[in-house]
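Bench notes, afternoon.
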Amino acid sequence: RGAARRAGPSGARCPPQVGQRPRENLPAPRAGRDGGTALTRPPTAKPQHDARTPLQQLLVPGASRGLGGTLARGGLAPAKRLAHSQPAPAERPQNVGILAMDVYFPQRCVAQKDLEVADGVSEGKYRIGLGQERMAYVGDREDINSIMMSAAYNLLSKYNIDPNDVGRLEVGTETVVDKSKSTKTHLMELFGSNSNLEGVTCINACYGGTASILNSVAWVESSAWDGRYAMVVCGDIAVYAPGPARPTGGCGAVAMLIGPDAPLPLSTQRHTHAENCWDFYKPEMHSEYPAVDGHLSNTIYLRSVDVCYNNFLKKTGPGGDVDRFDYMCFHSPYNKLVVKSVGRLLYNDFVNNPTGCKPELAAALEQWHPDSVAPAATYADRGLDKALKKLSADVYKAKCAPSAALSKELGNSYTGALWVNLVSLVSNIRNGLVDKNIFMFSYGSGSVATAFSLLGRVPSASQNPLFTCEGIAETIDLDNRLAQRTQTSTDDFSATLLLRETSHSAAPYVPTEPLETVQPGAFYIDEINSQHHRIYVQKAAAEERERAAASSERGREGAFAKRRGDMQRVRRTFAHGRPAPAPLTLARRGAELTRETAGGGASVRSSVRVHVAGDVMTP
């Protein structure tokens, strides 16, 4: 039944150790239109043909009649009863949760301060009013399937996970490119001959990632678990029509490995709040843009925070308040709503115990005492918002800011938003999370919300050494990856979103954006044929690109020797008192590369026809 089982530290069935099988189990590549590599499933042996009908294959030899009998040659035969007994509680998998994580975000981003200027709004409206710094975005080269494939591939390759050791694959997203074929089925290309993967794509606005996590944890904890890992991939492309909601977009995906003896196990207690509302929905299938009632959405979100927080505290023990948690992660459409949420926790601590809460809370919130002001009437109270922001500033800085940093850089990733914040927290605090209680709040419009917690711990020595908070942070290498992004102009951002809008659902279609917009090693759309089949290709990884560039450079050395000599003479001329030219830049114009100076001094301009192979350009 899948991978072999081994005994865990508490007698639990644990997945086999990673790194024991060769990486060659990952699917073999093939060439793509633009020089990338596409995955192809390795051939599998055809099963031996059985001439019996499916029913006959289930039969037990014999001709007697008995209870639960099945048809057999000569009559009914009693069905063979399989012994089944629930394992004792001590034999159940323990500390089931997140073993490993990785995040994928696009190559390009736009600064919110630049959008403020381009949109003609007051300075700080997006950076302070929304609490955002930058926003990640993609063009026509990437869609939700390619983004999820990139995140999943990163997880498998960086942690050296054998695809055959994964027994469940679940996806959370609300970015739909097909009303029937799910994103999970596209990810199957990464698993070679391993087709025995339970799980589907979960859709409920921004809640699908959390639903996938809860389902996967339940599978590992159940009697149906076969000893293999579960894997969850969640994320979205959040785009809005031009207007006040557009700066709240973003893009990103998180891939997580689920199993026992985890450094970040989920709590056994949680509380869910669901209701029917129309705060955010996508009724137009021909468009990526949602219909949004911003005011209602904020109210439902904060009301869900109240209900889930209060009931979760009751389930975890009497007398609880915000001090029960060391860190916090919230679903983050934009950072200001997260700041408000932290304030609501303090408000609920006051409402639950007006006389026994902290003195500073009782003094500052006396005019909003629940006997005089109903909590349901406070969601749009600006005076209360201002008071709570001041009261919660230290709590937010200590417990929530480390988790909010990445979302401020990427924007909203919908189903991935909560888990992007967990990536940020792990990257910032690392092994400081050991023995720390992390409050988690997930929300999806429509609406469904859940509060639960994670408890940082040190796994047993038999686990993969990367399966620690420190190992996860080192593997993700978040700061370096953020620094390698390309910050673009607002004109490029607007043109790219217009391109997505006009090419949405187009078929046949070949993407027009250059491969420079895709990160090395990421998957992208090679083409969409007339039957709407999407073909994905993996861009050459950085080291492969460097080897190709080095080889090409050696071939050009002789041809460029004279040009280098000419440029040296030019530099010597400018060194004798004339102003030096600005650095040379390359700008792509169709099939040409135009090289020109970007400032004062002598103007140098030349064009050369190039052949583009992948992302290596040769004259």
